[in-house]
Specification:
Rossmann fold, Alpha-Beta Plaits, 2 domains, two-stranded antiparallel sheet, 16 strands, binds iron/sulfur cluster
């Protein structure tokens, strides 16, 4: 039986419209009461990766959270809000993102993720995770991602949003653990993590999305959409189609389809509400694409990686020496010398945690040496 993904247009974050359209997108897949029952404790897991205001489109919009809180309460369940930013607390990120005010006004708890070890018997490779204790304690998890680009993984949608269930700095450790095996292995880790958390429902905030150099400093992009479903891979597949990303270019979808996670084939997904072709955009801007890199065999790729991928370089004119990148780097590769922050190119595993965390957009991504040569050759021969 095909899985269902619903699409509903919502043109802006006007409160009444958000509530009406959000209810509509859920009603198309059975309504909130299909997913939560009276008396249940329900964790709402937004994208709350960095404390930035709603207009920056980094986090799930506070009015989307408000609306879901009201619907969960109406269904007789008790909502909680939780996420684990890379640095700092969920409370502090919530306060800066506007979600804190919503939680306060509605009397909802914001929970920090205390680490606990959880076995993942359904995982295909990764059978143990350290995740937030509350994730295991609640009856249901509702996944509330923001539709964004991601410099490392191309897009961050339903599957990737569950990565936030791993507490703070432990997220960065996964970059180290999976570094040698590449993005595919990192993607498989996230897909296995989804099998552990098993969100009951995913609702994606794509009203104002982020394009370009996401997830921290891309540009707001109006898509005017809510997307809902129960299968995270299916939700990601439909969104990829909408923003014109072939599944083989998206590391998570590529692995999901090849290894049989979720529903990744469009013909197996029943899309209800709007039609994909009526809401799709041809010009959604992605982070810089490593087209040559993707075609190189894995063994050689590992050797050449540093020269073929984008290198983070601190822009000294913008840097405010706040040291957040230094604290976020999972391999201690950022140093402070005489008051100046520096990234060691040799030791960098290109996880881009520093780029994501920098509050001043002071870390540029500079193409590796071979990529620069390749791009010059292409231009010389008219390849653009
Ligand atoms: S310097 Fe930045 S990109 Fe390189 S390993 Fe550290 S956090 Fe990751
Ligand atoms: S996080 Fe950004 S502003 Fe802060 S020290 Fe690093 S580069 Fe500079």
């Amino acid at each position: 039986m095909p899985t269902t993904v619903s699409l509903v247009r919502c043109l802006d974050y006007q409160e009444a419209a958000v509530h009406k359209k959000l209810k509509e997108v859920l009603d198309l897949i059975g309504g909130i009461q299909q997913f939560v029952a009276p008396g249940e404790k329900v964790l709402l897991k937004p994208n709350l990766c960095i404390g930035r205001p709603p207009e920056k489109c980094v986090n799930t919009h506070p009015l989307v959270i408000k609306s879901i809180v009201l619907l969960v309460k109406e269904a007789g369940a008790t909502p909680l809000i939780g996420d684990s930013p890379q640095i700092g607390s969920a409370h502090s990120a919530a306060d800066k993102s506007g979600i804190g005010d919503i939680a306060h006004d509605l009397g909802i708890d914001i929970v920090e993720f205390e680490p606990v070890t959880a076995l993942n018997p359904d995982g295909k490779i990764f059978r143990t995770f350290t995740i937030g204790k509350i994730v295991k304690e609640v009856d249901k998890v509702i996944n509330l991602p923001k539709l964004k680009t991601h410099a490392l993984m191309l897009l961050t949608l339903a599957v990737k949003n569950m990565y936030g269930c791993i507490p703070g700095t432990r997220k960065a450790q996964w970059h180290v653990k999976t570094d040698k095996a590449g993005k595919g292995y990192f993607a498989q880790m996230m897909l296995d993590l989804n099998l552990l958390v098993k969100p009951a429902l995913t609702l994606v905030d794509g009203v104002m999305a982020m394009e370009g150099m996401g997830p921290g400093f891309g540009d707001p992009r109006h898509l005017g959409l809510f997307i809902a479903g129960t299968d995270c891979v299916a939700v990601d597949r439909v969104i990829a189609e909408i923003v014109n990303v072939p599944p083989e270019h998206d590391p998570i979808l590529r692995v999901a389809i090849n290894k049989g996670y979720g529903v990744g084939q469009l013909e197996d997904i029943a899309v209800v509400g709007e039609k994909i072709q009526d809401v799709s955009v041809a010009d959604f801007k992605l982070p810089q694409k490593e087209d040559m890199f993707d075609r190189i065999p894995t063994g050689l790729k590992r050797i050449l990686k540093r020269h073929l991928t984008d290198q983070p370089v601190i822009n000294q004119e913008k840097c405010e020496a706040c040291e957040m990148c230094l604290k976020a780097c999972p391999v201690d590769n950022v140093d402070m010398e005489n008051g100046t922050l520096k990234i060691d190119e040799q030791g960098c595993i290109q996880c881009l945690c520093c780029v994501e965390i920098c509050p001043h957009a002071a870390i540029d991504l500079v193409p590796g040496r071979l990529l620069r040569i390749y791009s010059t050759i292409r231009k010389l021969f008219g390849g653009g």
